[in-house]
Amino acid sequence: MIRGFLDKAKEAETSITGGHSVRNPWVMIGGVAMSVVDEEDMIKNNAQPGDKLILTKPLGTQLATNVKEWQINAKRNKKD
Q: What's the rounded Cα separation, in Å, for the pair 19 and 29?
């Protein structure tokens, strides 16, 4: 997965500049893409009040994963 992530970043002519690892029972990978474009090349959002927003994943997934990792680490640290 990491190799594919890096390959796609290279294909997009960008780089991976950060990240972190956490232990969890789910396979996860993510990233942030940024770019600089001229204003006339931007695809602008024409959303209006009342339009529907379709989420492709639950909000707060990363926060939930981090909380679980903090709980595991707190238990581990108490044993030391």
A: 10
Phi/psi at 5 (5° precision): -60, -45
The answer to whether residue 50 sits within a structural domain is no
What's the predicted TM-score (pTM) here? 0.38
33 Cβ contact partners less than 8 Å away, ≥ 6 residues apart:
12, 14
Per-residue pLDDT of the chain (80 residues; tens, 9 = 90+): 788 888 988 898 887 777 767 676 777 777 766 778 898 998 888 889 999 988 887 778 778 878 888 888 888 888 76
User: Is residue 52 in a domain?
Assistant: no
Map tokens 């940024």 to a residue.
Answer: 34
